[in-house]
Amino acid sequence: MQRLICGGRRNKWVVLLTATPINNTIFDLYHQVLLLTRNDDHYYSSWGIPNLSALFKKLDKGEGQITELLFQTMVRRSRLDVLKRQQAGEKIIIGGQEIRFPRRILKQFTYNFESSFQGLYSRWVAYIENLNLAPYNLENYVRQKNDKLTDRQLRNEVIGSLMKTLYLKRLESSIKAFEVSICWQSDFQGRFLDLLQQGHLLDGSSYRRLMALEAEEQEDSVEQVLVSLPEVNPEDYDLDKLTQAIQADQKTLAQIIQDLTRIQARVQAGEDSDLKLMAFKRMMLSLEQDKVLVFTYFKDTAEYLYQQLLEDKQWLEAMAEKRSRYRNFSSGLRVGLLTGKTPSREREMLVRRFAPRVNRPFSNPSGCGEDYQEVGCSPEEQIDLLICTDVLSEGQNLQEAAVLVNYDLHWNPVRMIQRAGRIDRLGSPFEELTIVNGFPEQGLELLLGLVRKLQQRIALIDQQVGLDASVLGEVISERSLEEIRLLKEAQTPSAQSEILQALEKKVDLVSMDEMRFPLLEFIQQSGLQAVEEIPLGIHSTRYQAPQDGLFLAFQVKDRHFWHFYPRIEGRISVSIDHLQSDWGSIFQLLYCRPEDFPKPDDLPPAPFDGEIFEVLQPAIQNLLNLLNRSQGSSLLQPSLPQWLRRIYLVLTEVEDAIELDAVTEEARQRVLDLVIHTKSIRTYERDCKEFWKNYQKNRDVANLIHSLDELFIDEGLYKGSSSRHRSPTFFTQEDVQLICYQWFRSDPEPPADPYLLRRRRKDPYEALH
Questions:
Q1: Which residue of 188, 270, 538, 755 is 20 to 30 Å from 67, comparing CA positions?
Q2: Contacts for 200-208 with beta carbons within 8 Å, 24 or more apart?
C-alpha cells in the first residue's frame, strides 16, 4: 500500500474507511496515518506535531494529546455523535429511512465465587499467587550472578506475573478453562526439567511461543517448542535449587488437579454443581428474547458451556417450553459454537444461520424467486443461541439478536462496547438491547486485589526497563479494574447510562463532533446570521470556574488556535511553559449549557479588566514564536536512518574516489537529491538494503547507483520531485486576529449593579464585551 501511495503522481487522493481505527493498540492508528503522510513522520511538523512516531509513543504511555492530529486526518461520526444530534431534533436519513439506535440496558447474572465447589476457589487463588514458575525466570538460578536484579531477570519476572494473571482469568471464566491451563503447566514443568538436565534452555522467543500456546493463539505443540530450545551447559545453573522450585510447583499443581478430579466425580454423582453455570441457565430461562449471543474470552470455556447446555435435557426442555409460551415456537432451542478453531467456511454458515436476514448471499441462484433460502438458513436450521469467543467481536452483522451475554469478567471493559457493536447496528429491529454481564457475588475483591498486585508489579518493571508490547498483550489497568466494579454496582438506569457512555467514549478515542455540535445546535436555533454578527474581540467572564486563568481564541490567516494561560499567584502567567493549547482539554473548560445561565437580555454588561493589555501582546508573541518555529522545523531534513546513511556516504565519497561516466554521474545526482529530500524513502528500505548487500560483495558503485536509479524510476519517485522543495511561510503580528477571550475566575460572581440591570442596551452584545 505504501509503495502504491508513495510512487508515481504526488497528487493522489487517499480515503480510508474503517469502523475500528484502533483494534489492538494506538499504533494501529499510527500506521494508518503514515499512509496519508507517505511514511513521513514529520509531515505535520508545521501544525505543531514535530514527529508522529514520538507522539504515538507518548500516547501509548497515556501522555500527549491527539486532538490536533485527528482534526487534520480524520472525519468521524460515532454512535454517540449521532445520538446527540438526534436528541437535538435532527433527523439522520440513510437510504431514505430515518436511523434510530436502540437503547442499551445493562443486566447481570451473579454467582457465589467463594461457595462454588466447596469453597475451593479462594484456596486455588492462593495457590496461584505462590507458584514459582521457575522455567520463566532461569536467571534467578544462575550459579554466578550479581546481587542486583538484571534487566533480563525483571523482564522474565513479568512473564511469570502474566502467566499468573492468565490463570486467574481462566479460573473466573470456567472450571474447564482453569483445568486445561493447570494440566498444561504441570506437564510443561515436568518435561522442562528433564530437558534442562539434558542441556536445553528456555529462551526469550520460546517464552512468547509458549504464552501464545497458553492463550490458544497458535497450533504448535508444547513438545515442538521444548525440543527446539537452544543448548546450554547445565553446570551454569543451580540445578538443586531449580529442581526444588519446580517440584514445589508440581506439588501445588498436583493438589489443584486432585481437587478438580474430585469435583468432577462429585458433579457426576449430583453432589456438587457449577454455580456460575447454574446462574447462567437461570438467567437464560428468564429472558423473553429468542436470539442470544454469548461471548467468552476462552475457547475452552466456550466448548465447556456448549457441551454442558446440550447435555442438560431438563434445561433444554424448559427452554423449549419457555419459547413456546413467549413466541409460540414449536421447535426446541438450537445452540451453535464458534471459536478460533472453527473453519472459515463453517464460521460464515454459523453467522448466516444465526442472523440470516442481514447475512443473505448477494444474489439468488438463477431461476430462484424472492423466497429462496440458502441451505442452512431455513427457519428449521436457524440458531437461537450462539456461543463464541472474540473471534466474532468485530466486523459482523448480528443485529437480529437483542441480547448479548458476557460469560466472564471484562478485564478490559471497553471490550464490552466492541462486542455490543455486533448487535447494536444500523437496521436493528429492536427498541432496546440487553447486555448481560456475569459477576461473582462474593470473592470479586479477592480476585481483583491479586490481579491488581500482579499488574502493579508489571507496570513498575515496565517503567524500569521497558517491556515489549507483544509480550505484555492486553494490559489490565487500574482504571479497568475500577470499571469492573462500576459495571457490577450500576443498578439504576442513570448509573448504567453513565458507565456505558464513559466506556463508549474510550472506544471513540476522541469525538470529532463533540466540539462542533454546540455551535451547530446554536446555528439551528438562532440562524447563521446571529453568529456572523458577533463582533471580533468579544469577551466574557465565567465565575466559579474549576480553574483561574484566561482563554484566548486567535485566527492566523486560515488557521485557528485556542490558548489557555493559568492564573498563578494572582497574575495571569504568560510563560510559554504554562501555555495549554490542546483543543480537547480547553473545550472541557469552556463547555457549558445555555440553561446554566440567564438569558442574554438579563445579563449585566461584563466588566472590563485592563489586565488583558498586559497579557495580550506576550500571548500573541508566544503564538508567533510557536508558529514560526514549527514552520522552520518543517523545512529541516530529518536525520537519515543508518542503512540509508551508509548509501549516502558511499554516493558522496565516490565523487573524489573514482571518475564516473556522464550517465552514471547524472544518475548519482538524481539519487542523492532524492535520498536527501524524499522523506518517504523508507518505504523502499527492503529493496535498498538488498542493493547494499550486493554492493558489499562486489564493491561496484556504478551498479549500486543504477540499481537505485532504476528502482526510483520504476516507482515514479522522480515525478513532481520539485514540489518537495517548499518555501517557508512565516507569520507576523499583522496576520493575527483576536477572535474572543474569556476570563475564568474561581470566586463567586459579584452582585450586579442595579443601575446596569435597568439600563436598556442598544448593543445586544454589550453584556459580552
A1: 538
A2: 200/226, 200/227, 200/229, 200/230, 200/231, 200/232, 201/138, 201/229, 201/230, 201/231, 201/232, 202/135, 202/136, 202/138, 202/229, 203/229, 203/230, 207/136, 207/156, 207/159, 207/471, 208/470, 208/471
